[in-house]
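Question (not urgent): is this output format expected?
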Amino acid sequence: MNPPTLPTPHQPGPPRAVAGAPLVVLDGVRQVFQKADRAELVVLDGVSLTIERGEIVGLLGRSGSGKSTLLRIIAGLLQPTAGSVRWCGQPVTGPCEGIAMVFQSFALFPWLTVLQNVELGLDALGVAPTDGRRRALAAIDLIGLDGFESAYPRELSGGMRQRVGLARALVVHPRLLLMDEPFSGLDVLTAETLRHEIIDRWIEGRLPIESILMVTHNIEEAVQMCDRVLVLSTHPGRVATEIRVPLQHPRHRLDPSFRALVDHIYGLMTQPATAHAGAAPATGGFPGTGVRMALPRVSTNRLAGLVEALAGPPFHGEADLPELAASLRLTAGELFPTAETLQLLRLAELAEGDVRLTEVGRRFAELDVDARKRLFGEHLLAYVPLAALICRVLDERPDHRAPFTRFSEELEDGMSEERAEDTMRAIINWGRYGELFGYDEETRQFNLEDPG
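Got this back:
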């Protein structure tokens, strides 16, 4: 499909823009954050990519792949530690004129009306009030909220609030629109409606933008909307794969070519991570090894629920991941951590876009609650070193107690505080379920007195 003919933005591009240059060029971008103990946390490493005019590009990746950090770098809100970023041929040294962003959280001011929220960006640009009002009303009409100009955010549904966020981004007539998981906070039908409306307006050339770069966890969403999909690896984030989407719009989810491409991406994202030079491979699909393995915050209810869904009809122990995700209404960002945790515990296996229960996993599905807990606890001790460490420390201490920080501080030597917190919360939930130890939230103490 030829790129859509887009309206000429009213706002001028960056000064001294190079004619014919891509909108964005990143070359060898590296982002390192300094932790409180002066240790380094590498979020992005060696990221190179280009955003051309007239295309929609998707960024797919797990939590921790640095997708949102990458958007901030492109927008000029964050200076990379190393590498170069160019916007329309010129080095990026600060916030870029001509780039606007739509957030997952809507980011609306509750005390302002729809019209006032949309006008806000124009005020910052110094647009005259009369012209600003005209442009704001036009943007509100474009995204389908005509008649709600005087409404406040609290009066709107989630989908309507996201439309306001979109109108506020479009009203400044950006050349590049950055979208950070804009549909993830919406219900399935509302998200689908908004996706279709954006694509329809894009094809018709009604959006006052040249290109879109969107972060998503939803593989079908990426295939439905994007011309190219960049898959990021994790810890640190790197561009692992680039996939072109040759399908014509409108794209239909049941079309065999659409399904084949979705299956292909699922397969790529379930392949064992290939270790980069000098980097150790992840264990069980998660970064880190031994006690410092980063664990996802997946509840035991979700783990048991996925085992039950796989064991029953129509899957009978084995499923194609796209079909499973559609059946359970889960995104890849929700499904992958759950399936990979089952793999870590040897209850399931992942390969080439499929997940299948092991013999132990099938047995787990047939057991009663108490027997399930015992089996889960046995596998937690055997395959999750942090769980074994907590039990050993508790057993060795005379009072059989240990503070949260005894283990969290050790984790923080190898990961961010946020990831260490998620890992600790995961192990608390899993250890209680497996009746290995108890945890008192008020005193922040592990114990052996009240397991489960």
